[in-house]
Amino acid sequence: MMRNIIAALFVAILGFSSMAFAEGKSAKININTASAKTLDKELKYVGETIAKRIVEYRRKHGNFSSIEELSNVRGIGKKVVEANKKNVVVQ
C-alpha cells in the first residue's frame, strides 16, 4: 500500500515538473541568428514589427555584441531588454 502511494506521488511530481518545463522556454534565443518569426514568438514584448527591425538592424550593423545593444533598435527600450535578458544570448 505504501509503495503504491509513493509511486503515485513520484509519477505526479514527475508529471508536474515535465509540464512546467514544457510551458517554459527550454533554450535561449541567439539574437544574432534567430529569424524574425522566432524573435516574434519567443521574446517578451516583441511583436512582428519589432522582430523585423531586430533582423534589419543586425543586417545593417552586423551581429550584436551584447544583449543591451538591442536597445539601439527602434521600439526597444531598457525594459524590453531587461525582460528578455535571461532568455537571450549573443553568440
UniProtKB/TrEMBL annotation:
Keywords: Signal. It holds the Pfam family HHH_3. This is Competence protein ComEA. The keyword Signal applies. Residues 1-22 form the signal peptide.
